[in-house]
Amino acid sequence: MQKLTRADLMSLESYSAGRGEFRARVLAHKRNRQVSLGPNTTLYFEDRLTIQYQVQEMLRIERIFEADAIEEELSAYNPLVPDGRNWKATFMIEYDDPDERREALVALLGIEDQIWVQVHGHDRVFAIADEDLDRTRDEKTSAVHFLRFELTDAMVEAMRSQAPIAMGSALPAYEHSVVAVPSSVRDSLSADLAA
Least CB-packed of 47, 113, 144, 189 within 10 Å? Predict the structure, then answer.
């Protein structure tokens, strides 16, 4: 999947005019790119469109229009675009109550290294977490992590044959899994893999 360039982005004026329609399209797309693992964590799988939306929103919020500043945003977000035989995801630990969240982040220390995906008939693939910077402290984890799952050629071939995908957390304090993600999610994730 190609990385984004400035040519792929709308100007602030154009984005403002078309934001509603673009946002609706992206939100519909994202519905097939998220998987809840238990009651309090979700994987949001990124691709070129989700990252374009994120960059456009950052440019809009920060009123960024200068070329160098736009390039900085692209440099920050392009690593989240899948490239080759991998999936990239934002992993969120989600608790509404601040006190409960604070306790959970201590209890879930190290969870980012225990998140896995599994293409039917193949071994689990554990996430490579937070390559940009370490988000975990000695006493607690972060509520947001960026994960990469590297797949083998055999896994990609199985995906092309509609193999089911399971996902889960192997952390003893939070063992949850999805035996088979919906086919709409599987098909969307299959599109991320290079031919």
Answer: 144
